[in-house]
Amino acid sequence: QQQVKQSPQSLIVQKGGISIINCAYENTAFDYFPWYQQFPGKGPALLIAIRPDVSEKKEGRFTISFNKSAKQFSLHIMDSQPGDSATYFCAARSGGGADGLTFGKGTHLIIQP
Amino acid sequence: DVKVTQSSRYLVKRTGEKVFLECVQDMDHENMFWYRQDPGLGLRLIYFSYDVKMKEKGDIPEGYSVSREKKERFSLILESASTNQTSMYLCASSSRALDTQYFGPGTRLTVL
């Protein structure tokens, strides 16, 4: 049973546009929601994360929007750049930091110049 | 800078072989994790450890075991490798005080 559903699988956005990736979860015990960015040949790296006590978090061009009642969260990349081309994973975790993350299946993002 | 290193970037093994994947972190992190990454499936948690000699099963532990004899080192063991264990294996670590998991570069294992 997939606990974190991510869409779309792939996304092509023009340079300067807004990239939007969506995730939905089922487990109401999840209390930490990170987004990871992965470039080819590298391990994933934390991009931005949110906890359910806030509805939005912004770091530079990256914003997480969080809707607790709908059990959904999304990543918005403003002014998308070719260097943002990567695979993005949403994830969720319940309990403390010692617990592992449950990941979505990933979104392959291509920013066209 | 946090550094998580994995012993091999690429590994080719035969069916039935015992395989050891090693992971070392240099930030004195308490927590360590093993994931496997497959196209279209994302990352799935195999095992994790929150302290030396402690281990917990993740979502897909079947066919794997782990060892954590020292704080900085976490080993993933495939007792008898099978072709369906061909995958990218990613190690991660995190501190007890913070949420962020730091990932190594991965080991691409092929089982023939």
Unreliable runs of chain A:
none
How large is the count of helical segments of chain A? 0
| SS element count, helices of chain B | 0
Task: List the helices and strands of chain B in order.
Answer: EEEEEEEEEEE
* Strand percentage of chain B: over 45%
End-to-end distance of chain A: 38 Å
Biggest protein-protein interface?
A-B, 25 and 30 residues
Task: Give the H and E element order of chain A.
Answer: EEEEEEEEEEE
Return Rg of chain B in Å: 13 Å
Cα(first) to Cα(last) distance of chain B is 37 Å
Task: Output the structural class of chain A.
Answer: mainly beta
Largest sheet of chain B: 7 strands, mixed
Radius of gyration of chain A: 13 Å
The profile of the biggest β sheet of chain A is: 6 strands, mixed
Outline the low-pLDDT stretches of chain B. none
Question: What's the multimeric state?
Answer: heterodimer
What would you note in describing this structure?
The complex is a heterodimer of chains A (113) and B (112). Helices cover 0% and strands 52% of the residues of chain A. Chain A is mainly beta. The model of chain A has no long low-confidence stretch (mean pLDDT 95). By secondary structure, chain B is mainly beta. In chain B, 0% of the residues lie in helices and 53% in strands. Chain B is built from no helices and eleven strands. Chain B is globular. The model of chain B has no long low-confidence stretch (mean pLDDT 95).
